[in-house]
Amino acid sequence: MGGKKPGFGKQLGDLHRWNAWITVILAVTGLLLAWDVVRGWLNGEARNPIKQLHIALGVLSAVLIVLYTPLMRRHLKQIRQRPRQKGNLAFVLVLLVGWFLSGIVLWQLRLFPPVWANAALLVHDLLTWVAVPYLVFHSVTRIRWMKQPERRAIKTAPAASPESSDPDRRRPYEEPAPWINRRQFLKWSIGAVIAVTAAPPFFRWLAKAGSGFTSTRDVMGTDANPNMMLPDPVPLPDSVNVIGGGAQGYFRPYTVTRFPKFDSNSWSFTVNGLVDNPGKWNWEQFLALSRAVQVSDFHCVTGWSVYKNTWEGIPLSALLQQAGVKPNARFVKFYSGDGVYTDAISLEQAGMKDVMVAVLHDGNPIHRDYGGPVRLIVPAMYAYKSVKWLERIELVEEEHIGYWEVRGYDNDAWIKA
């Protein structure tokens, strides 16, 4: 004999429970991936598995939506007289579908133009900021002990004798119920706590996402910049008058280790390897090198973009020409000042005219959190190729596999036009 088919109520209940747990784990893994501070604590080995788990759970959540679809008509019929439940169902479905669609774009962002990924990330973040507090509130207020009906104090008058002629003596009376019961009080208290906790960071995120900024100095303040690299007065010869109107968007600081600190007394920049004229400069010598200015877009492989950045620095081709590349050199390897991160591009790619060793962004020194004092800029590729805190360039013969490429990123980092 075959097993008994689960009833409609059990099917709905199972789907609801599975969706609830998946949403919780999605929220936790998503926040771990997106929260700047937490990303700095996690090393590369931890972040990629978290990302893959997040993607897998997103796909599983979509499967649950598909399984719910045949039950939707009957479910809507069941709750047709319950407007709150209908509203909650509509909200959750919009949330899940929005998360899923924007997640697909972020997951497969190489198939879409960067503007699609940027919009998808904005939608994904917005839904998360709105949904997580709501889902916490929804879950806590539906715990079984919270759903028990409030006992009302009802006082009934002594029973009247049949002979009594006073009608008020023949019917019970109720003491008026309080204007708010325990369940309502707890629900609104929980809601207020969640709102107070979530609202400030949400509005800070919304302000940054909506307005963008034109310099890292505007965001962090010069006093907060831990580079300690600039002599007084600061030399800003070319890009003080920002070309192109300034950056549109905002950077999300990521690091695979702790953010490093730099000092002009000990900082140096080196070009060596398979070159005829190895070079090493201290900070003041490096600032004295001839610089160029360009305007380009900056795209991160996680989906966000900053448009129309004005970068000022030394074209990589000029540095390599000055060093004199030997005939057997085939790749250019870059070393970050964090002591951990490396990456590489081919010698042919290094010759692109917009590949730059940048020292200024929109006319201001590049803040430490955004890769300063010196960072590589490769506009045609995703930003994991644009090494932050650049301190050394080495010409090599054998192909070097970079930090993120070893951990699953594609060595082909070209951005879809």
From TrEMBL:
InterPro entries: Di-haem_cyt_TM, OxRdtase_Mopterin-bd_dom, OxRdtase_Mopterin-bd_sf. The chain crosses the membrane at residues 20-38, 50-68, 89-109, 115-137, 185-207. Keywords: Membrane, Transmembrane, Transmembrane helix. Residues 154-174 are annotated as: Disordered. It holds the Pfam family Oxidored_molyb. Residues 259-404 form the Oxidoreductase molybdopterin-binding domain. This is Oxidoreductase. It comes from Cohnella kolymensis.
